[in-house]
Amino acid sequence: MVFLVLLIVNLWAFTLFGLDKRAAEQGNRRVSERFLLTLSFLGGSIGALLASQLFRHKTKKQPFRTLLIAALPINICYALLFSYLVVSG
C-alpha cells in the first residue's frame, strides 16, 4: 500500500513538472515552486528529479535544485520507515 501511494505521488510530481515546463514555454500560468517542492518532500522526489532531467526544467535554478535533491534522502527514509512498520506489524 505504501509503495502504491509513493508511485502515485511520483507520477503526479513527474506530470506536474512536465506541465509546468510546457506552461513556461507557452507563457501560461505556472505550478508554484512551493507546491512542486512540497510534493517532492512528500514522497515525489524520484519523479520530480527524473522529470527535471528529462524535460530540462529547473535544473539550474537555485536554491530550488538543492532542495529538490535534498528531498531524495528524506523520501528514502520515509520508504524505509514505512517498510519497517509494515514488516514489524
Unreliable residue stretches: none
Q: Biggest β-sheet: count, sense, barrel?
A: none
Structural class: mainly alpha
| Shape category | elongated
What proportion of the residues is helical, as a percent range? over 70%
Mean pLDDT: 94
Integer tally of domains: 1
Order of helices and strands: HHH
Compute the CA-based radius of gyration.
14 Å
Instruction: Work out the strand percent.
Output: under 5%
* Alpha plus pi helix count: 3
Q: How many beta strands in the DSSP annotation?
A: 0
Query: What is the terminal-to-terminal distance?
Result: 14 Å
Helix and strand arrangement:
Elements: H1 2-26, H2 33-55, H3 64-88
Helix pairs in contact: 1-2, 2-3
Report on this model:
The protein has 89 residues and is mainly alpha-helical. The chain has one domain (2-88). Helix content is 82%, strand content 0%. It is built from 3 helices and no strands. It has helices at residues 2-26, 33-55, 64-88. Helix 1 (2-26) crosses helix 2 (33-55) and helix 2 crosses helix 3. The longest helix is centred in the N-terminal third of the chain and has 25 residues, at 2-26. The chain is elongated and about 50 Å long. The two termini are 14 Å apart. The mean pLDDT is 94.
